[in-house]
Specification:
Elements lengths: L3 E2 L1 H14 L4 E9 L3 E9 L6 E6 L2 E6 H7 L3 E6 L5 E6 L5 E2 L6 E2 L1
Parallel strand pairs: 1-6, 2-5
Antiparallel strand pairs: 2-3, 4-5, 6-7, 8-9
Length: about 110
């Protein structure tokens, strides 16, 4: 299994890394948070460490720390735009068993 990006998400990440002028790819992880257990942590991967798993989707690297891999394995990340002001990543994670009402945290 792996963590994958859709074409829309990969295109968005590639554009943003190009604007920044630096970056290895997209870093995705989890942290303990909220009322159900975990929250996603998303940032640019400026480096890749020994404890990172690296996947590639549509020419963009996805970097996941091994501690988060159990919660994220098999996830697909999309980038959606509902209008000019509302846009962002959408996570389709097959490991999620429950989510809090506000959508900020999840349990596996």
């Amino acid at each position: 299994m792996a963590v994958e990006l859709t074409v829309a998400a990969a295109d968005h990440v590639a554009r943003e890394i190009s604007k920044r002028g630096a970056g290895e790819g997209l870093r995705i992880g989890t942290k303990k948070s909220g009322c159900t257990g975990f929250a996603y942590v998303v940032d640019y991967a400026d480096s890749i460490g020994e404890d990172d798993a690296v996947y590639e989707s549509h020419g963009v690297k996805v970097v996941v720390d091994r501690a988060s891999l159990a919660q994220l394995d098999g996830m697909v990340v999309d980038f959606v735009k509902t209008n000019l002001l509302n846009q962002g990543f959408e996570f389709r994670n097959p490991n999620v068993k429950d989510m809090c009402g506000c959508g900020e945290s999840f349990s596996v």
